[in-house]
Amino acid sequence: MSLDVAAIRAQFPILASEVYDKPLIYLDNAASAQKPLAVIDRMNEVMTSGYANVHRGLHYMSNKATTDYERARESVARFLAAASPDEIIFTMGGTDAMNLVANSLGVEHLQKGDEVILSVMEHHSNIVPWHLLRERNGVVLKWLDVTDDGVIDLAAYRALFTEKTKLVAITGLSNVLGCAPPLKEMAAIAHEHDALIFVDGCQKSVHGPVDVQDLDVDFYAFTGHKVYGPTGIGALYGKLNLLNSMPPYRGGGEMIDRVTMENVTYNDPPHRFEAGTPPIIEAIGLGAAVEWMMAQNISDLCAHEQSLTQNVMETLTGLNWINLYGQDPAKGPVVAFNIDGAHPHDVSTILDRSGVAVRAGHHCCQPLMTRLGVTATARASFAAYNTHEEIEVFVEALKKAHNMLG
Question: Is the CB of residue 189 less than 8 Å from the CB of residue 161?
């Protein structure tokens, strides 16, 4: 493995911080990743020497900002291996992208009685927008179960389809179990039944290369803050023929072609879905983040994260007072766990006093918590800048928590 982790860490200033007089060990990356200097400096550069509104001016600064903004779109298109930058819509984040698809697609393609297939391990962001369609349009939600490790039975998946099935909405990687559904096979089955497939790639995109054309998915969403970029920005990939068939999600400036007192006509994608002044600085920051990832070699980043995950799983499996959720050997760098007799919030608090940041709660996955028979878990999640030495401190802090609470 060629990844120089020390060199990676040096690019993240926040990792030099201390918490309660202890070095910060940040293991909450599934919630949000830290930011490298490449992103920090690029956003600062825009604000200090290259900011203006985009697409709306003929002066130098507006032209520069527009060029930088559209170059960021090109970077995201390369990151996802999209056929064209016109298939990339900038959104306010992954949640916004999912609401865009649910609303725009729902108006045109989903009627009362039409079915949407979801898995029980979806994040609330990929559940609630479809529930809103259920409430408002009479769309029917059908649920795909998973094993305790998050494995999907493709035969059971295929059996859910009927002539009413119009869409599959599936996570690219569970933020609790760490498992990655077989997206390419699931897309093929959906298309066999003339259904579309939407992928929530918010967890997946930072943990390995994504090729939306090879997967043949119809929509793919991800958020900037989990790929080492800023908050308030995300991206939606959609096949261009589908985007052309969808009405706009929001109205305002930029998304129009012509407005009169009698009617309005709409711009072509992607601008049709980017009403008003967009998150210019954040979009350019997202472009810098995905360029940074591609420059490091995403496969190398993924291999390092996988080694950290294997280290943790092997270590914790030997402790009889730890319950682990999701033990697929190929799982991503997400480890959800509970200590016998201890509430995960208390575990998180004790770890925090050792400088170790983990998440505790239902992780916006209440249907999955019900499926697993728990109300909450603690969760450690790893990024390219984490180290095996940090894992040792994490495990020792867990043992301390067990001694205090178990």
Answer: yes
| Beta strands, E only, 172-210 | 196-200
Options 202, 302, 364, 365, the catalytic residue: 364
CB 251 within 8 A of CB 276: no
* Catalytic residue check, 179: no
Tell me the CATH class for 40-295: alpha beta
Residue limits of CATH 3.40.640.10 in the chain: 40-295
In contact, 233 and 69? CB cutoff 8 Å: no
DSSP 99-151: HHHHHHHHHHH--TT-EEEEETT--GGGTHHHHHHHHHH-PEEEEE---TT--
- The strands making up 115-119's β-sheet, listed across from edge to edge, are 88-91, 234-238, 219-223, 196-200, 165-171, 115-119, 140-144
Q: What is the CATH number that goes with domain 5-29+297-405?
A: 3.90.1150.10
Note if the pTM is more than 0.85.
yes
Average pLDDT, the chain: 96
State pLDDT tens for residues 36-92: 999 999 999 999 999 999 998 899 999 999 999 999 999 999 999 999 999 999 999
Query: Helix or strand or coil: residue 241?
Result: helix
